[in-house]
Fold each of these.
Amino acid sequence: MAATAPPTRTGAVPAGRAGRHPWLSVLWTAARTPRGTAGLVMAALVVLVALVGPAFAPHSPNALLTLTFAKPSAQFPLGGDELGRDVLSRVLVGGRLLLLMAVAATAIGIVLGAAAGISAAYLRGAPDGIIMRSVDVILSFPQLVFALLLLSLLGPKSWLIVVAVGVSHAPAVARVIRSATLDVAERDYVKVAELQGMRPAKVMAREILPNLISPLMVEAGLRLTYSIVIMAGLAFLGFGQPPPTANWGTMINENRVGLPLNPWAVIAPAILIALLTIGTNTFTDAVARVAIGVDRRPEEAALVDELGPEQA
Amino acid sequence: MATATAPADQAVSGRNEHPLLVLTARRLAIGVLTLFLVSVIVFLATEVLPGNAAFAVLGRSANPARLHALEHQLHLDQGVLAQYWSWLSGLFTGRLGTSLANGEPVWGLVEPRLVNSAVLVFAAGVIGAVIGVALGAIAALRKDSLFDHVCSVVALTVTSLPEFVVAITLIIVFSTVVSHLLPAVSLLPPGTYAWSQPELLILPVATLVIVIVPYIFRMMRAAMIEALESDYVEMARLKGVPEWQIVLVHALPNAIAPTIQVIGLNFLYLAGGVVVVEYVFNFPGIGQGLVFAVDNRDIPVIQLIVVVLAAFYVCVNIVSDVIALLASPRRRIPR
């Protein structure tokens, strides 16, 4: 990764402080674009299933009720799983924890990443060097491998999964936010606040942070998608909750040997995970288009800025 | 944004070599430093942090005698610096001790897996890059056409999918429910090389290609659009340069420069992606090896695989940065 050349332009900053909640209008505008509506509907549908689903599960998700990999029937609309448990009930129950953990990991990643990125760009000098070198080091691990390394210490505890995935998001967020901050830090209102003797911490919190809402929203959407992907992936690899807890990622792995007998035990959780990640990612894309313009995401825009043909 | 020259390589080599060498050397130095820090982190994380690695491995079956024997095997009875040194020198001499799971030498276990994963990553990376660049360039040339819109929407959709969902979909379509054209899992025993049965590579490579093409496509499309709207392409058009020449000589090289970084990033992504994909297809590479090792808390194997993956990351980053420097002529000139 280019560790040099601060981007000349980020364009990732909203017009100013017009309106009390400019980000709400960004979200609203994004939700009304075709892409945004499609993404929002898909994601909302799965979130609804994940959050309200457990109340509607027709059977106990862990009871052995039917034959192993039983075909769908009136009583068991999605058939049975590897142990003869009701697939529908397990699908309805198996998303809530996954979703909540993904949201928590995203929050950790955004808070850590934003704090690191803003501090690095605003304080410059030694803090910048130390923060960005640490970012380089953590970015030297594939995210999933970083999470596996941490999990190998203490075993797959849910809180550790959340922390591991959250921390693994922070460096990428820090990079994007750093380049956006470099732009904002040069604005007049920041200079005015400094001249009035405002302390650096206050300048960062009061003057800079509010102007980074757009890139932060886009980052949050992206990281949420990645969180879901990584957490479902960890569960698929066997690093989720211990059995018999139902989890969409775990279900896909448990039941794939039964694909020829009852594919629904794999297809149903796979479709829900796919809809969720496509939904969040598509909506994020719509937000990025509204907030930042063009067809690009901040990471791509930053790359073009750093290396693009237009650079003099 | 000033100097609008064509990217054609009429550069004077004497003027250009110097800054390029300096930049490359600096990049290398940063890379070596990063690698060193990575090795420290891996070492600390696996051996020192959790109280005692020997205890973590033995778990409830720990008794003083076994604990002591394992501590000796892992060099835990030495000081931290001595431990780190013997491990780090082992990385270079290949003397990394034995696996805690089955007592075999670590390097002998990891080496065939490494080769298999390298084949997988290389094949997927090259095929994905070619497809991504081609689709991106065509979409940019036909901006806002049906082809462009369909590609963009499909790319956005596929980018969001976890690898294992793509893999499972391929298994459903090609090897179980819909048809039985290809093997769903490889039955290669660990320690054998992948090319002995190339048909086992098809689905894993296809999965990885599907996952990386959208990123390369998106970047190539964006960069190509930017290049086509640039001053130097405008200039070339005004001079009456034929359109094919504008595309191939003026726009394409400048669009590929930033795309190379994304292709590099995708090789990195592949290094992580192999973990899940190898596990799905039971492919005997380092990703599957890592999952098994983490499952068994086989610390020497975890350390080696994680360090190898991180070293790959750092090296690919350096290579893609240097290639990007080489590919965009203007950056070679000192500022």
Amino acid sequence: MQRIGVFVCWCGTNIAATVDIDTVVEAMKYEPGVVHASDYQYMCSEAGQSKIKQAIKEHNLTGIVVCACSPRMHETTFRKAAKAAGLNQYMVEIANIREHCAWIHKDRKEATEKAVVLARTAVAKLNLNTPLTPGESSVVKRALVIGGGIAGIQSALDIAEAGYEVDIVEKQPTIGGKMAQLDKTFPTLDCAACILTPKMVDAASHENINLYTYSEVDSVGGFVGNFNVKIRKKARSVKADICSGCGICTEKCPSRKAENEFNLGLNKRGAIYIPFAQAIPNVPVIDRDQCIKFKTGKCGLCAKVCPADAIDFSQQDEIVEKQYGAVVLATGFNPIKLDNFDEFGYSQSKDVITSLELERIMNAAGPTGGKLLRPSDNGHPHTMVFVQCVGSRDTTGCGKTYCSKICCMYTAKHAMLIREKYPDVDVHVFYIDVRTPGKNFDEFYRRAAEDYGVNYIKGMVGKVAPTNGKLLVQGSDLIADRQLVIEADMVVLATAIEPDQTAKSLATMLTASIDTNNFFTEAHPKLRPVESPTAGVFLSGVCQGPKDIPETVAQASAAAVKVIGLLSKDKLMCNPCVANSNELLCNGCSNCQHVCPYGAIDYVEKEFRAGGKTSLRRVAQVNEAICQGCGACTVVCPSGAMDLKGFTNQQIMAEVDAICR
Amino acid sequence: MTFDYYPGCTLKTKAKDLDIHARNAALALGIELEELPEWQCCGAVYPIARDEIATRLTSVRALASARDRGRELLTLCSACHHVIKRVNNDIQTDDEIRNKVNNYLAPDIEYNGETKVVHYLEMLRDTVGFDTIREKAVKPMTGKRIGAYYGCLLLRPNNVMAFDNPENPTIMEDFIRALGAEPVLYPYRNECCGGYVAMDDKNLAAQKCKNITSSALERDVDMLITACPLCMYNLDINTNTAEETKLPIYYFTELLAQVLDI
């Protein structure tokens, strides 16, 4: 018989305001096995923990139930406390009466009843707990960074500097990401290329960093410390090791119909191309959908002019399989599509552009050589209107409910730069709120509005009507309480950002969770912001939520620190809650082997002696180092031979019984 | 298929063209429109105040009567459609309004928003099918450039009206294509004509209408179509008085009857 102690936490008023603590404590005193029940205001605090330790010793407890917050939050804390008092740490059960009870109920009576049920369920389970001892697993001293934008580059550089190998997988032909497309960066207005391209070079030349550009992650297996990853190196049709990057092929290519993605379709590129002059690696790639050779079999001009003989039309995708101890997700973002926002006339007029398109127009290496020209006729614009929150903070269902965070600042930047370079241009900015928290950010915005004469208008635009070669912008000025119509030459839409599409498939591969907007979820929103809930998977940059460059770099370095901490360990403690098979009951059906996502189950032939006879049977065996304790095998096992330590079928039935009692 | 048809007051007086051609065209397309017996005015303006019950009652009477007859309720006038559909939504989603209305009307069977409200255009699209119209077109309007004028009552609020994309609607353009003509997109096709503001501020309505017609004329339309008697009134008196904004405006049912050669 166990000797169980129950500890009910108030969590200040978080639990105590909704759950009657005394009732819970009193009810627990009469549960089977319980010899001690008490409560405290903050059980996780030093004082709370010592109360637990003291009670374990005083009452000679064999296990404890802590009725508190989610086990995600403090299970480790209470396990440590129990261990310090001499208990096996798996003799600790958490009844989550905060997230699962107090926070989601309003009625005190109902919530208290539910808290009692949750607590007695944990007691019922604990009565059947047995001490468990975790094993150990090795750590592969190499990290994988998925995404080669500023977030991925920074994480990789920091990990590499600490002496560990890092591979960056980037799906585009070059690293650099969105930052490479920007013109200037707020709030200091240094040019994006000047601060990014040296980092790109550092990453490429670092002895510990290996780049897989124009590559994608095909599959991920394994677990923390031992991820098995298949990387697909897409066929460039150019031998990267021979190519000198001279660029003759890109100049001579006769196909000029493809939209230049790097310039967001504002101009055309050849079928063989290098995205931009400072691309890394400086190796072209053939766009096979556009290439005349691939479409008709004729041409091959690039191969003829290549002085290094590097063009290879027969190149195939290549799969590289590698092991990693940790994975950093740095998959970034894209502006949303504007199909749902036809009122702004993006599809009706070339002169309605997105802010990222304006970045390219303003960029000295962009399609207009940095000159502010109206896309429809290359004329000089005299009046420009910026519309903020296009698709952000949207409650109609057409866009995103969240604030994209970067738009207020880059719009202020655009407006200021235009007013400085072209003082004759009138610039109007429509906004809902101007949000500029951040070091030197508000000062920056005020400079745009006060020193540079940008006309900020509080209100939204209802319609942009292309009329007689102009854009009639209809909006409201909420402060003056009047309707405005501005005759503009260009309209710039501060488009909401969303996570890159690859986030969703990667989340599935890595069993890393994503939220309703497809941003990766952090292990804890405040205290573990750069870790995914999946062990060994870390988050860097906008893939976790909208951020600007300084925040992205800070998070990238933070993720790197977490990776370094993990890779610096020689052994990792395994989860002892793994499956095990009762060989006497196993009928050899292989169901468990088929459903196991980790390949942890093998079948062996084994001799069994019963009733004086010896028979050879095929039975399941679990490799405990590989098993992650997901429990899928226990569900499909028809004979009940497969069981999960710490979550046995018996324990789960006891919990169900306790709930139904 | 037979619908209960709710014509509304305007269609009996100023907008007879909208009504009569709709009835004839429906007949030619195999749809029976049976006028709802003893219908009353919808109130013409949807009451924004949540505690305003009296002006919702006539719509509920029409809705309950269609429910009792086991029919869907077909509307044509944009204003009637707007009011009746929104009141139906109130009954479906607002307990307080539903209770008060039922307490007041005390119908034999409580009305809980069971009736489906269908606009004539939705009937053409979903029940008849635009392809059928194309097939039955005797005199297709080949070569005509027609601008659809939606106004606001059919489209907004989108979550209740669920008529079409409020910023980029297509149903009328699809209808125009079914007539054999060419739909012309122009930016102001879903802007308000001024509506009842015309009674209070003639100039404002005039300006709104001028924006609409000049934006359509800039794109070389031959004519505009509308489903709303109030839009028709505003557009007509405000733009067809001056030579430079003159533009023929028709109810969409007029063109439908013409194409079907009725």
Amino acid sequence: MVSLVIFLPLVGAVLTMLARSESAIRWSALLVTSATFLLSLGLYFQFDPGVSTQAVPQMAQISDLWFPDSMDIKYFVGIDGLNLLLIMLTTLLGPIVVLSSWTYIGKNHKPYYTLLLVLQTGVTGVFAAFDIFLFYIFFELTLIPMYFIIGIWGGENRVYAAVKFVIYTLVGSLLMLVALIFLGYAAGDAINAGVFTTDWYKLVAFNMPLGTQNWLFLLFALAFAIKVPLFPLHTWLPDAHVQAPTGGSVVLAGVLLKMGTYGLVRFCLPFFPNAAQDYAMLFAVLAVIGIVYGALVSRAQTDAKKLVAYSSVSHLGFVVLGIFAFNVEAMQGAMIQMINHGISTGALFLIVGMLYERRHTREMSDYGGIAKSVPVLTFFMVVSVLASAGLPGLNGFVGEFLILIGSFSSTSLASPWLVVVATTGVILAAVYLLYMVYAMFWGTLDRDENRDMKDLNKRELGLLIPLAVLMVVMGLAPSPFLAKSEPAVKDLLETIETKRLAAEEMASSAQALPLTID
Amino acid sequence: MDSASLIYAILLFPLAGAAINGLLGLFMPSWRKQERLIGILGTAMVALPFAAFVVLFLSFDGNASITRFFTWMAAGDLTIDFAYRIDQLSLLMGLVVTGVGSLIHVYSIGYMHGDDGFWRFFAYLNLFIFMMLNLILGDNLVVLFLGWEGVGLCSYLLIGFWYRNLANSAAANKAFIMNRVGDFAFLVAMFILFREVGALDMSSLIAAGSSMDPTMLSLAVFLLFMGATGKSAQIPLFTWLPDAMAGPTPVSALIHAATMVTSGLYLLARLSPLVLLAPGVMTLIAIVGATTALVAATIAITQNDIKKVLAYSTVSQLGYMFVATGVGAFYVAIFHVMTHAFFKGCLFLGSGSVIHGMHHVEHELAHDGHGHKLDPQDMRTMGGLKQFMPATRMTFLISTLAIAGIPLLAGFFSKDEILFKAFEAASFGFPAAWFVWGVGLMTALLTAIYMIRAYVLTFEGSPRWPHADTLHPHESPASMTVPLWVLAGLSVVGGFLGIPAVIAHGDLNWIHHWLAGDHGPVAERLFDGHVALAMEWALIALGSGVAIVGVTLGWRWYTRQGLAFDDALASRFGGLWKLFQGKYFVDEAYDKAIVRPIIGGARYVFAPFDKYVVDGLVNGTAFLTRALSFVLKYFQTGLVPSYAVGIVFGVVLIVWLMLF
């Protein structure tokens, strides 16, 4: 079933390629993504957090057809607490992105929807893979469709943005590939009878010597930090967002960025626990800088889409901080914040896109007072803004609160002051987000073109209502979602701790050894 | 009905009211015209919880009960339930919030009549009540915080209710952001408490208080107080409240006088056993409260906008409540919260009635062709309204006397008790309280004067608006005057809930018993000694005397000289008057010292830094790579001879390296 959820969009991509008419293309894309979402609901309900995934993921599918026996590379996918919600987010955003492109995309319908579907397969595969080589293939697979989506259907500067996006990501991921191959051989020699392996479970079981850990950790972490993006590696993001069509932005913010934070959790922490611990402070500091810095730069923007783009830098900073706090509260906060950010920022990009479709401008000064002409759109905007600003009762608060309260008690992060600084992000979020609402929605409606704007149509309502409902549900009752990931997060943290102590012991006994011989 | 279902009802009615009026109004434009339906629904959704509170109050057996609905969030050691606490404190606050809230809903039916945002108004108001109830009933700090930020949101929405005027929206933003500064402190306090205690529910926190590291405890209490200064408009975070008057007047009465702004006091009373363990912070609270009371009173005396006077008066009265908190008399703070809800609610609604009347005059003037412009809130163009608005005038007068502290009215009892508690604290080893007591007494005098000034300038004398001989405002409809009379009545009798021991020759102080008695949740600072009986009487005489002198002086000055007296004061006090009138230029200072540096920094430092330095490095790297490849590409010519030359050179080089 997991494979079906991964590859159904790819089948859909073939369908859209074969489709004759414009509407057949759109409808088949919508149908396939909706069907995928419904299928993935099966995953959600079938997944039982009570069943341990420490030896094998749930609903696992393994086949080793692809590679010779001399290499232990498999097609290995499955579900555990770490990826379930992210896969759900991906499949949920699928039909939403298709619907958001319904009228926005004005040219080359066929390749657009085909690429969109390929992209979904790539992202789902990234999250579902339990073989890191397979992960890598999917990871790279997402680059190509996104490159074209930005490069063909983007704004004025689309080629620059697309190239920057691809090269930036490639720099990181190629370094990761080197590290990955090194890791596979090292682990193979140590625990897999000399056979190169990329099986996640085997790699987690393998204890890397301390010195090598540092290098491999940094190579992996760099690739993911670029993807997140972590300050100061973030500048590809605003360019990509502003140039990408709405659908592209929603996928980008909603799930593509999460491949970075997910990679940190899934690979960097359990593979290289000592290095991760040693570098925790560095990453936490960069994350906190990102929170404050992203918020301040966001406030300075005049382009609404760019403002929302920089807000992602700030919000993802919270996630990274939570990941490197090494405790259950903060890590759980990070997990749920990934989902929440996808929902609320996704909604913000959708709304900015809807305004762009009406007025063909993203400059905030071109608007003003439009609450009068588009009250329903305003309602959804205000709800999304509040969710994004972390108002309790809506989803954004849950993640931020858990991350901050967990990080504050963290023994890995040396200073609670860091968390205090991060908490100022709560004030700053209100500053830049309310400014956007203030500048665009309140005041007198003094331009004719704004006065004649149409409010949301049924399709647009259909896009925003599910997201708004989720903001409220996940704000007031996040526990069922948190419960899905908690056991896995606990296991992960325990594994990390055990491995870390073991490696330290090994290192100290290795040091002690020559002395005893003497 | 059992209490759990009553609590369900209490919380869900206002939420349902907000959802129905809000969503129907949003998606069904025909609903927006159903003023009567909207108003009745909105009011019922607050009146029913009030009835439920009455039932709970009457059947209360003295023991706190906690009702858990479901888990909000759980991760690791942290579990936050939607749990609600019924005890003496939350019952009293609940009665005030839903009681005064119901009256203000009724009033709003008349006040907002004809406004095209009628539906929105009632939806916001109901949402506010829901959030306020979360704040006072929440059994852990996080649910309390949900209410805390929720009321802040409603305050934002209602201050900016008339969003077509961008100034209103700016005031709304200011209120929200300033409150968030306080909320930031609140959050950090929760982080500290969770780290130290491992839980955030009230009982665990209070139980852990004495075993906590005193420094951490003091820090947490200090941060909670900082949060309170945001919500309850104290120095340094008070400047949002006067601007918040941009909202419709019922909002000013409900949110910015009677309920939301008292949340800070509620929070500190709720955690009073913890606050008592941080005496240093308490001293700070008392001093900040007293200073705020005086500063705001001096500003109030110079304002001409009737709502601004009341706004600064609210800041000042909240200062009194912090004084009570700071000297350890938490129950007195709550007592003043209650009486203040009555008389300040009445005053704000009265001012709304006046504005309603003057609005009519403004409207008539605008259409008579003379181009007269009238600010319906400016007292300088009012005067003599008593003949046109008798009910408004009478209720306004009653509540003016109540806030001034005229004996036996509500404000007299609560304010006197605050001053007495400060005196008591000062006498028994809390020297800072002398300052607090003195400032409190001085502020009491100023309060009487500025309130009488506002009353006289509005209602006495002769009308000062253009064409006053022919153009008359009308009294407001019954939906507005009935709530006024109810609140005025409460302003008369409300104080008897807290009769000081000395007057009744025995302990008839109900509110003390209720809140701080054997089972009461509110702690108090106890002193090893008593103020002598004669001294107590002397203090009561002093307090009454100050109020009476203030009222009499104000009455004589302003009935005889009217506005001219302001000018006389202005020329007499010169620079000082300008300072007061300019609101101590705090807004300007904040703007220069904080707002501009942040916004300017974002625009002129951080954004360019991002564009030219961070991104510049990225593009610079790309450029270098391209430049390098530009050079290198000449080596990759595709011509076999040039490769051959290269190979030869290479071989020579390797051989050379191997040989030497």
